[in-house]
Amino acid sequence: MAGLARSVAAAILLLSMTTFGFAANKVIIILDASGSMWAQIDGKPKLEIARESLRTVLQSVPADDEIGFMAYGHREKGSCDDIQLIVPPQAGSASAISAAADSLKFLGKTPLTAAVKQAAEALKYTEDKATVVLITDGLETCGGDPCALGKELEASGVDFTADVVGFGLTADEGRQIACLADNTGGKYIQASDEKALQEALVETVAAPAPAPEPAPAPAPAPEPAKPEFNLLPTAVLAEGGDPVTDGNAWEIYKAKSDGTRGDYISTEYGAYKGNLEPGDYIVVASDGQAKTEQKIKIEAGQVYKPLFNLNAGTLIIHPRPSEGADVVDGAAVVIDYPGADMPATFYGTTKAVLPAGDEKVTVTIGQGVVTETIPLAAGKTVEKDMIAGVGHVVANAYYVAGGDRADGSGIGFKVLKAKKKIDGTRDEVTYAYGPDSKFDLPPDDYVLIATVDLAVVEQPFTVKAGEFQDLKIAMNAGVLAITAPGASKIEIFETKKDINGSRKSLGYAFDQKYQAAIPAGDYAVVSEKSDNSSKEGSVTVKAGERAELTVQ
């Protein structure tokens, strides 16, 4: 697992070295936020590996590089238009991109071709040099042709490049999208084997352009003997505290004449010992969400041991649906800490190093939300259970009580507040599709609307915190299977006519066969042909049974 995470991190970091560091162009990173990113590799969701890798690598990107962030499939299920440029290309966007990636919901489709096209247009690829880095764990699912798009962008762009990271794809799947990179002169990187990935990337980036020969200079004066290390920094969470040596990072920059950060040098981790050339530097110490920086002047022959006080503490949150219940691994834990540009999002049991002060923590489990403000002192650890106060509900639809469970594709459940508003409508709470639909709901009275094809049933229910309910909805329905040879359309009507002599249409299909669940009762079925001729048949559907009808 750790190897694959490092592979993905290496893929993005080396891409950043090639596209971010050595070329003065704008870059947009596209992250696949489709539902398949919930799949696990060695017990950890792929979306978490991608988030952690982005966060780690972005810490190493020079502050003046203009990086943007786009995602798809993060707001709607089943939509091919769910593409969003969340962070426009700009300098210093690392924290904004990390926060945006942390807040994504992974639930939609994979319109990767359209996303790359939109990113190229956002970068004005027909006018300026442009680079897109696509990270995807799946193939195109919205009808796009990545190979054709690569040729189009290469032909019409000034200097367009697409690098593609195939996250967990098989070799055969990788070949289906590698053409996008190949057709633009970019790289396709298979993030499934760490050694092979790193060797391939090192081979493509390890030969930077040679530096110009320096002008002749007089022989330098003898340099004083150099110590083995001339920079030995120490980070603590609070004054007088023990040194932080695990999980912390050191970012090192050249210092400009005005004391601000200049060229990026490197990022180091843990108990760092450095050897820097004489000069002025900015050193940034960080652990978790806490960071501080100092300007340091290195002189030949001297050893510097600066102390960095992060003024931070450790907060441990256990999100639970009710008192005494197990921690919910998928629970969202959002922490708005002092000085945050954007709140940080974590999942499940959360252990975070944060700047000292009042931490606003919000835990969300299903539709249950609880927020608390927790004071955190420097150098201290606060561990706390946060209770969302929800009950767990599992819903299934049955054709008839005690009969077969509905198990097809046309199953849906919608949860509404039981109490009606003054206009007679109810507030919708949430929804789900398919058998065994799960809901975490705050205590209240609700109405569940169950739909199986053409059958719809309402059932009230009450939720209590910490309780489990298995809702079995009896649809009082059967299955109607219609065959109409040569038909262009099949339509089902109620047999009873209204006051105007019209019959209510329940459903139709432009086919010669039509099968659907339908409430028990009598129905008329009309078969239409392309020559506008029609035939009609009648059928009785019984609850829990299958009825078959041929209309010809």
UniProtKB/TrEMBL annotation:
Pfam family, one: VWA_2
PROSITE patterns: VWFA (PS50234)
SUPFAM superfamilies, alphabetized: vWA-like
InterPro entries noted in UniProt: VWF_A, vWFA_dom_sf
Alphabetized Gene3D superfamilies for the sequence: von Willebrand factor, type A domain
Biased composition (Basic and acidic residues): 543-552
Residue ranges of the region described as Disordered: 528-552
Domain VWFA: 26-205
UniProt-recorded name of the protein: VWA domain-containing protein
Natural source organism: Mesorhizobium newzealandense
